[in-house]
């Protein structure tokens, strides 16, 4: 019975491009798996921005507490709209990593927690250590220039950046 429940929960996190295109799936938060250990936040953000500039509003590559130069192999991202997932999925899922030598293959799935605000709360409440690390290792929020001027104070403990326009 547990195996059946696990299979069902796995399918809840599978990305179905057709459902996104048809407006049947409006989730925006993804988990990126199989990230090479040496990959940094900067490298991953750069790789995403090369093909998807301005499409994220949240990014968090978790790192090991005892070795901040090594990530734990997964990251969470949130797109500004569900439609932005389609081209990202097509560009990344099932592909090898471009900027590092690794045999790992990118695997994408929906995150359990959905939406920028919910992701922020998840880390503030359930993983407060993430908020005390050096700024470069904290969850990152991407705001437009106008949002940054109006809202940056409310994201005080996060790494805040203005995002590249699309």
Automatic annotation (TrEMBL):
PROSITE patterns linked: RRM
Keywords for the protein's UniProt record, in alphabetical order: RNA-binding
Source species, domain of life: Eukaryota
Pfam families: RRM_2
Residue ranges occupied by any RRM domain in the UniProt entry: 28-113
Gene3D superfamilies: 3.30.70.330
A molecular function (GO) term: RNA binding
Protein name per UniProt: RRM domain-containing protein
Organism of derivation: Trifolium subterraneum
